[in-house]
């Protein structure tokens, strides 16, 4: 039964085999059809965003299983480092959780406690849903899931506050933390160098420090990217869990570009639509293409 969970977690497999490189996408809009459509594009994992996305608890449950049904890892970003939020995501069947808003080593240790079953943590047992996101045939029992979850689920922490950056080397050493994941926009805001175009030298230095801390502790590193071009740059730097695109950027960008081509005004109209429709992430995509 350990093999069932190990094989089903495509993100964990990618991180621990070969180059360790994995690419994922970000889902911010609700809907199982959307979940499956994104998952079928070839990504190793899909982040179901319950922090900034328009996705409620019941919708998260359904998207987790929709993504898993495509043999892709559903990863849930919870809104905050709260034990009940960890429980809801993992009980839904998430193959891993991305947790924002950490400030200290104690925050990281507390997170591990809520994400792990005893004797390593304090996670409660009883969800009838978790198993289905790993085994559609029904061969994995609840007890099988409980006995194998600790070693097969991923606990991913976002490093995005100044306080977390200041102690990132110690956070990286916390047993049970698998990946240090960077949210560049919030990180830039919180260290006093907000992203207004290109990343500042100070933000680039902070990103490099987080990567180094993960590598030194034998942990994996990840980063949120607004486009494939940017994602490739960070893959070449050594990051391993890399987001490529989100639905709220992909949909308006592609639709605006297609309309602009149809009107014969490709370029100017697309740039204007991207700027208005896709907010900050899409504006960075436009800048990267220049």
Written description of the protein model:
This protein has 15 helices and 8 strands. The protein has an 8-stranded parallel beta barrel with strand order 1-2-3-4-5-6-7-8, surrounded by 8 helices. It has a single domain, classed as Alpha-Beta Barrel (TIM Barrel), CATH 3.20.20. The model is unreliable at 282-290 (pLDDT under 50). With 290 residues, the chain is an alpha/beta fold. The chain is globular, with a radius of gyration of 19 Å. 46% of the residues are buried. Belongs to the HpcH/HpaI aldolase family. One of its GO terms (cellular component) is cytoplasm.
Low-confidence runs of at least 5 consecutive residues = 282-290
Rounded to an integer in angstroms, the radius of gyration calculated over CA atoms is 19 Å
The assigned CATH architecture is Alpha-Beta Barrel
Main beta sheet strand tally, sense and closure: 8 strands, parallel, barrel
CATH H level: which superfamily?
A: Phosphoenolpyruvate-binding domains
Shape: globular
Fraction of residues in H or I helices: 40-55%
Q: What is the CATH fold-level name?
A: TIM Barrel
Roughly what fraction of the amino acids lie in strands?
A: 5-15%
Number of DSSP strand runs: 8
Kindly provide the name of the CATH class: Alpha Beta
Q: What is the overall pLDDT average?
A: 92
Strand arrangement within the widest β-sheet reads: 1-2-3-4-5-6-7-8
Return the structural class.
Answer: alpha/beta
- Tell me the domain tally: 1
Distance between the termini: 50 Å
The helix/strand order is: HHEHEHEHEHHEHHEHHEHEHHH
Pfam families: HpcH_HpaI
InterPro entries: Aldolase/citrate-lyase_domain, HpcH-HpaI_aldolase, Pyrv/PenolPyrv_kinase-like_dom, Pyrv_kinase-like_dom_sf
GO molecular function: aldehyde-lyase activity; metal ion binding
Keywords: Lyase, Metal-binding
């Amino acid at each position: 039964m350990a093999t069932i969970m190990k094989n089903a977690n495509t993100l964990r497999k990618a991180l621990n085999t070969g180059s360790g490189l994995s690419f994922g996408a970000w889902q911010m809009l609700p809907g199982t059809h959307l979940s499956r459509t994104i998952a079928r594009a070839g990504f190793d994992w899909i982040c179901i965003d319950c922090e900034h996305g328009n996705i409620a608890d019941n919708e998260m449950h359904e998207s987790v299983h929709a993504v898993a049904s495509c043999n892709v890892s559903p990863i849930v970003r919870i809104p905050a480092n709260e034990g009940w939020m960890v429980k809801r995501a993992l009980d839904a069947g998430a193959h891993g959780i991305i947790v924002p808003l950490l400030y200290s080593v104690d925050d990281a240790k507390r997170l591990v406690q809520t994400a792990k079953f005893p004797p390593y943590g304090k996670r409660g047992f009883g969800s009838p849903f978790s198993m289905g996101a790993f085994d559609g045939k029904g061969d994995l029992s609840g007890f099988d899931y409980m006995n194998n979850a600790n070693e097969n689920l991923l606990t991913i922490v976002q490093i995005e506050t100044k306080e977390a950056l200041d102690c990132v080397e110690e956070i990286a050493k916390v047993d049970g933390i698998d990946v240090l994941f960077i949210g560049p926009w919030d990180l830039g805001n919180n260290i006093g160098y907000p992203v207004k175009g290109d990343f500042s030298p100070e933000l680039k230095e902070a990103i490099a420090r987080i990567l180094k801390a993960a590598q030194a502790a034998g942990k994996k590193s990840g980063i949120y990217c607004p486009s494939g071009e940017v994602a490739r740059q960070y893959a070449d730097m050594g990051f391993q869990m890399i987001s490529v695109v989100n639905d709220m950027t992909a949909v308006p960008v592609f639709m605006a570009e297609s309309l602009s081509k149809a009107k014969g005004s490709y370029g100017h109209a697309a740039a204007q639509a991207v700027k208005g429709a896709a907010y900050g992430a899409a504006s960075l995509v436009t800048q990267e293409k220049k």
